[in-house]
Protein 1
Amino acid sequence: MSFWPKKGKDQPFRRRPGRPQKDWIAPLMSPALIAALPFLGALLPGLMIRAGRDACALSAAFFTGLALLMLGLNVPTVLAGGVVETRIDWLPQIGLNANFRLDGLGLMFAGLILGIGLLIILYARFYLSKADPMGQFFTYLMLFQGAMVGIVLSDNILLLLVFWELTSLSSFLLIGYWKHLPEGRQGARMALTVTGLGGLSMIAGMLILGQIAGSYDLSVILTQKAAIQSSPLYVPALLLILLGCFTKSAQFPFHFWLPRAMAAPTPVSAYLHSATMVKAGIFLMARLWPVLAGTEAWFYIVATTGLVTLLVGAKIALFKDDLKALLAYSTVSHLGLITMLLGFGTAEAATVAVFHILNHASFKAALFMTAGIVDHEAHTRNIRRLGGLRHLMPITFVIGTIGALAMAGIPPLNGFLSKEMMLEETTHVVWAGQAWLVPLLATIGALLSAAYSYRFIAHVFLGPVRDDYPHKPHDPGLGFWAAPALLCAIAVVGGLAPMALFGWIVDAGATAVTGEAVHVHLKLWHGVTPALWMSIIALLGGLVVLAAFAPLDRLWLAAPKPDAKRMFDGVVGGIRRASLGMTDRLHDGSMSRAFAIGTAAMLAAGLWAFLGGAYVPGTRIGAPMDPLAVAGWLLLVAATVALLFLHRNRLLALLLLGIVGLIVSVTFAYLSAPDLALTQISVEVVTIILLLLALNFLPKETPRESSPSRRGRDAVLAGAVGLAVGALAYALMTRDFAFPSIAAFHIDNAKPGGGGTNIVNVILVDFRGYDTYGELTVLGIAALVIHALAEALLKGGAANDRLLAWKPETPEAGDRHPMMLVVVTRILLPLILMVGVFIFLRGHNQPGGGFVAGLVIAIGFVMQYMASGFGWAAARMRIDFHVLIALGILIATATGAGAWFNGLPFLTSAYGYVHLPPLEEFELATAALFDLGVFLAVLGAVMLALASISRLAVRAGETVNARPFDIDPSDRRG
Amino acid sequence: MNHWIIAPVLLPAVLGALAVLVARHDILLQRVIGLGGTLALAVLALVLICSTTLTGPEVYFLGDWPAPFGIVLVLDRLSALMLLLTAALALPVTLYAIGTGWDARGRHFHALFQFQLMGLNGAFLTGDAFNLFVFFEVLLIASYGLMIHGGGRNRLKAGVQYVAFNLVGSTLFLFALATIYSVTGTLNMADLAQKVATLPEGDAALIRVGAVMLLLVFAIKGALVPVQFWLPGTYANAPGPVAALFAVMTKVGAYSVIRVYTLIFPPVTPATGTMFADLILPAGLVTLILGALGVLGARSVGRMVAFAAIASMGTLFTAISVFSQAGTTAALYYLLHSTLATAAMFLIADLAVSRRGSGSLAEARPSTPQSGLIAALFFAGAIAMAGMPPLSGFLGKLLILDATRGDMMLVWPVILITSLLMIVGFAQAGSLLFWKSSAIPAEPDPEPEDPPAALPFVAVGLLLMLLTGLTVFAGPLTAWLGTTVAELHAPAPYIAANALPVGG
């Protein structure tokens, strides 16, 4: 990682004699630091606004000025032909590094961005009113400035992309700064969408370009002209990159976002649309000019787009009544002009482009600021409501006029020089065999340009003073007009002494663009050349157009015009509506559709997978068909089929479900899996009881909600899935493992390793005790969730209201707690408890274990609740079931962790045999302790679930009986 | 043996139980347990990631049974990374839940949160296919409890859909495991890797069925089209902090795909070949398109972020589908990014919606206190979600674009155009939420509210800081991830650590 600027490799770097560079100053001059300064500065204004508006603006200006100073320190090096570089590794894996380079082009652009930025800060300080949040404004502005500087100083084109997208984002904030204005919001979104589109296409373009060139660093790419232009990927890369440039630089047909962005405060417009944002596209075309330009594709795409934009922009600008709109379209037009020059592909034209970038920045920023001053003072920027301001605002008049004349290309202002050079270049261009076409169209463009510039002067400042301005205008204070005045001075001096003011920087910039040493000769008088005649035609023609403006305007108003905003809104709105349909209709929460699609996908994927591989049927021979098994099978099928038809009656459905569960338990027993049978049957009992309790709150019948066609679809799907799963099960059960399975190890090691003869139990608490640990937690969590859910339902709200209003659908029996039942369950309780303990203790060697024991004991308690009523039972059950669950998990964890003290992993079991007279010798295993955890968690979970459902019943009007029986026979005695 | 490996599972289990046992009546005590637990987990994850970086994959033989007969945990770089990500997410989310009082709006928030972490960590650590199922269950049931935390009609309704869809997934998981076990006779993942590679040809069809069913299970978790339907309703209706935590839930699916389809079914497997890439790539791209369109068309903030989450899963699976060194590296980087970004965005959306009183994007409502700060956070979050610079989403997308050069014509346009759709969608929503509202005068507040809590902003700030960290240290991080991925694609050390019996 190197933070120190390196000397350019290609260019010899000369130190200026007599002024040895000190080491401490080198990092200060790093281009990385220059790019970072505005970002650092962005942090301050938001804070400094608390110290006042001046402090806020000064803090922004300070960092801008500092960056400008750093840049200035590099000028000697760059002018001597050096390239200052900073390289910092960022993501070298894909070639994205924070590599910066400062050469002539970067110097010129960075100077423009920072210099005009400084003036904009000054201007904005006076432009923004007290109601505007100035801290935000300068924060956004500095972010934007940093992004722009980053673009022009990046050596790595992926880094450039980062800054590129940052300008889109920060300009979004700037354009939408007046967030209460709908135009501002829409303009911001439109700008973001269009430039975002371009940015994304450019990502692809840059990735391809880097692939061709073998590096993402400009210092390498710029040397790969031959490789790039001969690559088959050249045209795609060119198109993708140009899409980015054209959208950013508002080239036809993407020009429509720029005028919409005029809803921003004027300092923003002046900044974004004179020197910065829209110049980013131009910059990039210039930056990549050495490797992309010079081909037919480049010429026809870039030059033509530029030319069309030049004409379209100029024509629309002429007829705009909004001052800022006029300037916006004039910007579009001038950007077209620069693009066209770059498109010509000759070094001379590129040099002129560089020169015009500078000129345009100076006069356009001045003009935008003038428009802002007029708007600020007269409270309108509608040309039709203005006129005669030269008397009221003489200073503004002078500034505006110089700016507009420079834009028109009147000698001796700087605009004249570059415009004439441009016209000169067009005379060398042959477009599709036609030598006259480009010069003619360029002259027309220049003519229109002159016309709208004249109009800016004539219709705003000239003419009689009116008495109907929205606000009586007068010249503002010095602070407000200083910035545009300075820019106009540059326009004047630049025209009179172009070599002194611009020569050196144009040389440096053009040298960097073209890759050849350029020495321009800028002068006012070139002799009588064709370009002079074209210039004269344009300037005089502009006057004619201005004179005929009124009839032309009527024509314009009558002509149909495509409304870009409506088209844009139509496209975005169309996509939005389509996606609304997709999100709302497809994702409306319909379960049956979701399941149908999901199941169909699973079925299709499964079939596809099966058919794609070889299948050899298994060789296992099936067991003989036992009449008992067949009977069970028939019962299972019958119950399932009956369920299909009777499922709307919920009670019946539950009973049928019970039958299915019962048969499954019996099947386990039949297939010699007593543990599973025991577990399954206890689970069945508990589930059915809990479901019965829940059913109490539901309607007796399920309503019919789906159409026959949907039921048909579901029947087909479900049938197919059932068959597929059946077939899969058959295929699996009729074959042997491809390899010896892990089961043999379990059988061999259950007794010697796990200390139990019941292999299933040893698997559950030992071999795979960790699975059990997870599952017991699942049970506990489930009970907690049920509890929380019940709590939420009882908290008040619609569900609670429904419970309060709940009426049983069928009349209740008068005797909720029949004495016989109560007595029997109480007698049974100790028996069940003992059975539970027995099942628990024998678990390790015989069918049983903590899980089953927990369920059995839970059933014993549930019986008490059912027989004697919840209130009665709860009053005697002094344990909070939460405690049981938590203790269960903790005991299981502690047992497992006990192994650590022997240096063994979690859940390693230990067992030993104890002989305690008078008992027989018995086994003590840590697994039993773990099983105790399982037991507690299961018991707690079932009981907590039961208690939670019972609470709903109480809320629904279930009374708590004070006595164990509703009808106490002993009452009858008396 | 390194006992710390199991600590990420046991610590939250014990704390969850303790939160129920001793703290169920006291929210402060629950908060202490919750916050302490996530902090400790973060430290633990850091220790483990350092340890595995230094020593390579380590296996923890539960119950001291040798593999493949018992269950093993495997700590390798990938699982350690996922642990760290989970902890890094859990901490700010817990802070947020405490700061906003979300945790007090129902019972057992912190207990369920800890159990959720237990499930996540267990799933990331396990080296056993059936145990993965068990921990999927743990995290599913806990997530269900968290999802319906606080109650309410819409939330419960969405919750039913969530749990129903995931139960289908669990069933399918069992089918898949039964199939795979019936063919290979083993459940240990390293053992499976060896056995599947040498499977007799006649078993190819069945193992393919098992593998594809497994893929669908993970696709449900990862919300991949066409089994993504549960996500928008669930995420949009879940409490804000829970939705934020769920950002890592979908990543469990992605993690499992990466783990299983690089270890057990790599593209060189004769039976399965590249079938998973062939399935995942189109599904990922369609998911991405659907998510991006959803961002543009969503009618509420919650659904918008939910669809953005779907889009990010689409992007992630697209990167995974490459199954190459570069592709999986990009996928892991993007996985880290999208988890944190999605979480941040859900929290920010919750901040905005709770102040605004409605998540509807149909109309502007008066501006609310702190809307400037929230707008700034929203802007940052949207940048992250849409994959714009300067945050890590952009770097993630660049990595993915770079890795998918082979399918440039198909993948690039989808990724780039969907980015634009999301930018437009977020811009529209943000402009309505924060800009348009400023044109409406604020309703006079009848009574001065409590001073706004700083904790929620700290939580969001933490997440954004993590995203910034991902951005700034992208280089070293990607290098680390590259080694991780190299281990995944050449899993010999992972398998060796299991010390499987020779010839078994």
Protein 2
Amino acid sequence: MTESCVVLAIETSCDETSAAVVENGRYVLSNIIASQVDLHKKFGGVVPEIASRKHLEMVIPVIHEALEASGAALSNIDVLAVTKGPGLVGALLVGVSAVKAIAFARKLPLIGVNHIEGHIYANFLEHRELNPPFVCLIVSGGHTQLVYMKDHGCYEIMGQTRDDAAGEAFDKAARALNLGYPGGPVIDKLAREGDPNKIEFPRAYLEEGSLDFSFSGVKTALLNYINSKKQKNQEIVVEDVAAGYQEAIVDVLVDKTFQAVKYKKVNVLTLAGGVAANSRLRQKLVERGEEEGVKILYPGIHLCTDNAAMIASAAFYRYKKGDIADLTLNAHARLSL
Amino acid sequence: MKVLGFDTSSIVATAAVVDDEKLVCECIINNKKNHSEKLLPLISEMLKNAEVALEELNGIAVAQGPGSFTGLRIGAATAKGLAYALGIPLLGVPTLDGLAYNVKHFRGLICPILNARRNQVYTALYEGGLDSGFRRITDYMAVNIGKILDRIQSTGKRVIFLGDGLDVYRQHIAAQLKDKGVFASQAFNMPSAASVAMLGLEKLRKGLEQSAFEFTPLYVRRSQAEIQYEKRKRERSN
Ligand SMILES: [Zn+2]
């Protein structure tokens, strides 16, 4: 590539307002993330109306900060990008409306990006040599999917959750154990102090050969365990509960992921999404990867959670394909890859 | 000076451009199509028809609320993006002021009412027909229709009503206020971006500009989650 292409992207699909400037889809010049997590804590989860209000408050300051931090001015930007879904529609609309207006005012090409696709592209920012094809495990508070990425913009969904997302399963466990919100990091931390084999939680593998997931069973088992302990007035060792619960989820994720890798005969596996930050998941995938000769790649923690740099990277490759949106671009709560 | 104004606080999407002498162009769409899909194409088309380039604009005026939360945010985020990218001031015009402006020559009280659901209306009272124009005499509020009608009745003055709240409350108002209450014609009954832009231009002249960084809608009402949270907290402490 000879010519440089600078993308400014905005992400507002859930509870982080983020803006980033990325060059040629691979080089992060800035990636500003304003998290609202503290705002939603007292409600025990993200409140859409509150999130939308905060996004509207933050959207311009965050864009401005991203430009300043990158050293670029708006006049240096070649392409504008925004997350169009899936996510909270009211939250998405703030980003979509603001970015469309900027694109219109500056006469710049506009790219609408699928949030899940963005998560996959976080890997392209971290690993500049990475190219498709590969299998990607996307795990977050909203999604659990096994995707085969054949080429840029070309995906096959091999499996997905039939009920809760993996991150949701962690959040619900944390709530049941009174550990607060969000649950993932707390469970991860406590599990390191506990014994994963002390309490046996069920692993749902579903039908033979299926790469789908189900985490509602393990969640119910946990609630039953807590109730029976309470009834018997017995002490609950949170560390062991966290370790056992996490292990049950991680085991299924790892097994199914390697099944997918085997089906597609690829030797690269990427991880994406907020739960990709889970230390036990990373450890077990890497161990298994070493056994089976599969390279495991994942982004740094700051690129695993929702951020706009990943959206900018995905947008760059969409732009190269000429996939440009017009001013009717809308936000979509549900949107498949 | 030229100001672009728009209002997406209700099912109406409207955009207009005004200059110091006149209304240059206005467009109003009063049906249920999605604001997110239609607002910018509407603005783009309208400016093209008006032969006004974006670079000629001196300010962006937007209906600030109250109104549909999502509608307000689409308008506000669009206004912020435009004002920021063009480097010009943002001018927030309260939705109810914009509506009252439609009938500001009425001698008596002006009462715009917007359907706020949950058995409430967004409203405020204005004195119209003044030499200086019109003047707001109450806060912006979310109240039961009965409350505002009682207050109006106690003044004994004639009142003109307008806004989408009439779809629900027209009979109710007529029954209570009899010949003291009149209704604006359909042509003036809905938000008009011309009014928003004119009021925005007045603000700009007075130097009352806002920045794209800080601008916030007038929601008037808190989110349902916050209302319920406060209620639970109060119950627990009682
Ligand atoms: Zn995400």
